[in-house]
Amino acid sequence: MRRSIFFSLLFCCFALASAPAAEKKPNVLFIAIDDLRDWVGYLGHNPQAKTPNIDRLAKMGVSFTRSYCAAPVCNPSRAALMSGLRPFTSGVYDNGNDWRTVIPEDKPLTTTFRQAGYFVCGAGKIYHEAYKRRNEWDAYLENEGGGKAEKQLAKTAKDDGVGGIKFAPLDCADSDLPDYKITDYGIAELGKSHEKPFFLAVGLHKPHMPWNVPQKYYDMFPADKIELPPYLENDLDDVPPSGVKMAKPQGDHAKIVASGRWKEAIQGYLAAIAYTDMNIGRLLDAYDKSPERDNTIICFWCDHGWHLGEKQHWRKFALWEETTRAPLLWVVPGLTKAGGVCERTVDFMSIYPTLCDLAGIATPGHVEGKSIKALLANPKAVWTQPALTTFHFKNHAVRNEGWRYIHYENGDEELYNQEADPNGWTNLAKDPKSAEQKAALAKFLPTHDAADIGEATDKKTGKKDKKDND
Question: Which is the CATH superfamily of the domain at 24-379?
Answer without folding.
Answer: Alkaline Phosphatase, subunit A (3.40.720.10)
